[in-house]
Structure formats: C-alpha cells, structure tokens
Amino acid sequence: xxxxxxxQDVAIRRGERLLxxxxxxxxxxxxxxxxxxxNGAGKTSLLRAVAGLLRPAAGSVAFEGGEADAPPxxxxxxxxxxxxxKGGRTAxxxxxxxxxxxxxxxxxxxxxxxxxxxxRLLDLEVRKLSAGQxxxxxxxxxxxxxxxxxxxxxxxxxLDSVWRARTGELMAAHLARGGMILAAVHDPLPVPAxxxxxxx
Length: 200
Ligand SMILES: Nc1ncnc2c1ncn2[C@@H]1O[C@H](COP(=O)(O)OP(=O)(O)OP(=O)(O)O)[C@@H](O)[C@H]1O
Prior knowledge:
Layout: E1 2-14, E2 17-28, E3 32-36, H1 43-50, E4 58-65, E5 76-79, H2 91-101, H3 106-115, H4 131-144, E6 149-153, H5 161-176, E7 180-184, E8 194-197
Parallel strand pairs: 3-7, 3-8, 5-6, 6-7
Antiparallel strand pairs: 1-2, 1-4
Helix pairs in contact: 2-3, 2-4, 3-4
C-alpha cells in the first residue's frame, strides 16, 4: 500500500488559462488534506491530475511506498461531484460492478451497502435515488474495494447533517487504517485536515 502522495511544483493549464503554478504539498498515511480555493481555482483539475487523468503543465505527482510504480488508479478512488453512476442501472448493479472491477467481492459490496444503509435501496434504478442517496452509493464504492487514497470532490455537498457526521466516521476509520484523503471542499471536512489553498 502506498504511504505518501507527493505533489511537487505543479502547474495546471486548462485551455489557454494557467490556473495555478508552483503548488507543492504531500499527503501521508493517516492524513487528510483539504483543498480550498475559489470557484474555478482548479481544485477539481488538481484531483484529476493526482489521479493521472490530466497531465500537469509543469511539476509532478508521485507516490511512495509499496507498489508505488503501479498505475495511479490502483492506489486510489476518485469520487467526482457528479458521482459517475449510470442512471439506468440499479444501485446494486452499480455497486457490485465497481467492487468486482476494482478487486473487491460481492461480500465486500454488500458490507459497503450496509455501512451506508443502502440495503433497502439496492433494487432501485440510480436515477430514482435522491441526490443524497446517490452520494451514499458513490461513497459505498470507496468501501467496497480498498484503496490507499481517497480523492474526493465536494464529498459532503448533497448530504444531510446525519450523513455528514456518518461520513466523518467512515473517513476517520479510513485514516486510522493508514489511508489518505485529499478532498476539494468549500465546507470544513468532518475529520481533522491540513488545508492547502489552490490558486492563491
Ligand atoms: N475541459 C476543460 N477545458 C477548458 N477549461 C476547463 C475544462 N475543465 C475545466 N475548465 C476550467 O478550468 C477552471 C478550473 O475548473 P475546476 O473545476 O478545476 O475548478 P474548481 O476549483 O474545482 O471549482 P469549483 O469550486 O467551482 O468546483 C474553470 O475555469 C473551468 O471552466
């Protein structure tokens, strides 16, 4: 399992615009980092760069620790604010597929569904879930297959206060296992986190 993410002197360009440059920080095992910054500052773009989906205009993203040379996708989960769920499939089909695709099992998918109290919603098509239920399904995928790093884009946005607190417990358990969290946020994370400002 990787034990550190190193972001070194990174610049991100979208189209003609240089969003930011010279950004450096690390995320170590057991640590949460909150990416802050104004709308359009480049927080989502930075998460995509860390996930290996967007090439920085300068600088580098590296992983340290066990199997650090494996593809970035094998170290991390990326939860975007659109959830990445297919509306026409049932919640169970989506969760089971994600678990098996990422090295989990049907049993781990069931466990994850229970942790997010989705058991009674699993037969519903994703498009019939509320925004908060959909986000809980997306969060269940984080648990269904273990990954060292969780990259989260506004993870709490559609959740009510009960589920914000519950998500905080899931995050704390992930950190206690030596996991890492890198989250783009406008509201504080429900776990202690170091803030890194993007586009300052
Ligand atoms: N594919 C793209 N092509 C060109 N510009 C893009 C593309 N994707 C994003 N951008 C631009 O890059 C800038 C940064 O977007 P990004 O989503 O990374 O910001 P953000 O900090 O996450 O914003 P927010 O807080 O509003 O979610 C925005 O101005 C956006 O319009």
